[in-house]
Write a structure and sequence with these properties.
With about 260 residues, the chain is of the alpha+beta class. The protein has four helices and five strands; from the N terminus they run H-H-H-E-E-E-E-E-H. A five-stranded antiparallel sheet has the order 1-2-3-4-5, with helices on one face. Helix 1 packs across helix 2, helix 1 packs across helix 3 and helix 2 runs antiparallel to helix 3. The longest helix has about 130 residues.
Length: about 260
């Protein structure tokens, strides 16, 4: 009876062990499958994380690029702000200059209306002076006056240029009074035209000498005529002619003085 119970117990133990082994085998297989799924999921997570990191890097690079562009644009804006301020100042100054120019143009018109009659009077005064003055270079001086009259009628010559030429003519006449000059020309002597050498010393003396040196004359401004001159002046006149032509160094000469009624 006891052996039978022991045999039964052994049989039950054997059946239990077989049952446990049978039950354990599918559990290990399930664990392997789950582990494989976990590994696969990990790989997917890592791959997804890598892709996410790449997207983050790309976005970060875009942010850096946009940030640099933003800084560059801000610098350009600052530069343009300063430039615009400078341009505003310049435009304001130019507007002021335009106002000043407009005022000046009005004043120029007024001055031009006043200067034109003044120049006409100056030319007429100069013409009268030449008529009353010692009669040297008569053709040249009268032509200068005629040119000034013609210039005043021209519309293509600026008022400033007209005034400059009038002043230049006055300056030429002023220079005549402090220079010595020799020139040739024709003169009526005893009813015939003869070629003579003229010597002008400022406006104080105007004499002539024929080419053969035989006849001398002095301009008498009081009578507006040539007067015969003594032969004693021949050497001084010859010397004066050479000095005027720069053939001789300046030196003291004795010449008669013209009586001037130009005042």
């Amino acid at each position: 009876m006891t052996l039978s119970k022991i045999a039964q117990a052994c049989l039950l133990l054997s059946l239990s062990t077989t049952s446990l082994i049978s039950d354990a085998t599918p559990t290990l297989a399930d664990n392997d499958k789950q582990l494989s799924q976990v590994v696969d999921a990990g790989k997917e997570i890592n791959q997804s994380a890598s892709q996410s990191q790449q997207r983050v890097n790309a976005i970060n690079e875009q942010i850096q690029t946009k940030s640099q562009q933003f800084k560059t644009i801000n610098k350009e804006i600052d530069g343009l702000t300063v430039y615009n301020q400078q341009m505003k100042t310049q435009v304001a100054n130019q507007l002021k200059e335009l106002d000043q120019i407009a005022v000046s143009m009005e004043q120029v018109s007024i001055i031009e209306r006043q200067v034109s009659p003044l120049m006409a009077r100056m030319i007429e005064t100069l013409a009268n002076f030449i008529t009353l003055d010692v009669q040297f270079l008569t053709t040249e001086r009268n032509k200068r006056i005629a040119d000034l009259h013609s210039m005043m009628e021209r519309a293509d010559v600026a008022i400033s240029e007209k005034f400059r030429r009038v002043l230049a003519a006055y300056q030429i006449e002023v220079d005549y009074g402090r220079t010595i000059e020799a020139y040739s020309g024709l003169i009526d002597i005893d009813g015939s035209d003869q070629n003579v050498d003229f010597l002008r010393i400022g406006r104080v003396s105007l004499v002539y000498q024929t080419r053969d040196g035989q006849k001398l004359g002095l301009w008498d401004n009081a009578s507006k005529s040539w007067q015969p001159l003594s032969a004693q002046y021949r050497l001084d006149i010859n010397k004066g002619l050479r000095i005027a032509r720069k053939q001789l160094a300046p030196d003291l000469i004795i010449v008669p003085v013209t009586q001037n009624s130009a005042e």
